[in-house]
From TrEMBL:
The keyword Metal-binding does not apply. PANTHER family: HTH-TYPE TRANSCRIPTIONAL REPRESSOR SCO4008, TRANSCRIPTIONAL REPRESSOR. InterPro entries: Homeodomain-like_sf, HTH-type_TetR-like_transc_reg, HTH_TetR. It comes from Dyadobacter pollutisoli. Residues 35-54 bind DNA. Keywords: DNA-binding. Residues 12-72 form the HTH tetR-type domain. It holds the Pfam family TetR_N. This is TetR/AcrR family transcriptional regulator. GO terms for molecular function: DNA binding.
Length: 201
């Protein structure tokens, strides 16, 4: 029994190393260079383990999107820790989630690069995985008390966050919002909060 626990812990540690390596490869070499050999070399593991744990590069990328390496809000741990919420608590939790998601994207170049690559190539191989994660999160939070289409609201906010965070890599300002300063992003955080708090059906 103890040996099984050690094996499981070692397996999870190796999977985490491989998932971290995906981000490193994207950031250092670009999304188009993502492949089994380079990821295995970066992670310091035998490439056989990638096939054993993830079956394929597509399977690995899908798990990457669902892991805390992509954004902390997509991790199983984050989602599992969302408690059952009373209707009046949902807006605050959703606001916090959107703020965390936005700040994760600001800090994670690999995630921005992956999104930019998908948009630029027209390939949305990971969109279904993202949709599954988002729907799971929304099912835990529930609809806002005064608005019954929370998924459309989150889609709108997410699209804006994607565009603005990706923009930080090639522009300093959007209108007069400084994309390279915390003060600029605090302004966006306030807007997100107001939208979520004030939205009505």
């Amino acid at each position: 029994m103890k040996i099984d626990k050690v094996k499981k812990r070692d397996r999870e540690r190796t999977k985490s190393k491989i998932l971290r390596a995906v981000g490193e490869v994207i950031e250092q070499h670009g999304t188009e260079k993502v492949g089994v050999n380079l990821i295995a070399r970066t992670a310091g593991v035998n490439k056989v383990l990638i096939y054993r744990y993830f079956e394929s590069v597509d399977g690995l990328m899908e798990q990457y999107v669902k892991s805390g390496e992509y954004t902390s809000t997509t991790s199983t741990e984050y989602i599992d820790n969302i408690p059952q919420l009373a209707p009046e608590e949902r807006g605050k939790v959703l606001t916090g989630l959107m703020h965390t998601f936005m700040n994760d994207l600001r800090e994670r170049k690999a995630t921005r690069d992956l999104l930019r690559w998908e948009i630029g190539t027209g390939k949305s191989m990971l969109s279904e995985a993202r949709n599954q994660v988002a729907l799971r999160i929304l099912s835990k939070i529930g609809d806002l008390p005064h608005y019954n289409d929370t998924s459309a609201l989150v889609t709108f906010l997410t699209a804006g966050i994607y565009y603005m965070t990706i923009s930080t890599d090639y522009r300093e300002k959007m209108i007069d919002v400084d994309l390279h300063s915390d003060d600029g992003w605090k302004r966006i955080e306030k807007v997100i909060e107001r939208i979520i708090v004030d939205v009505r059906s």
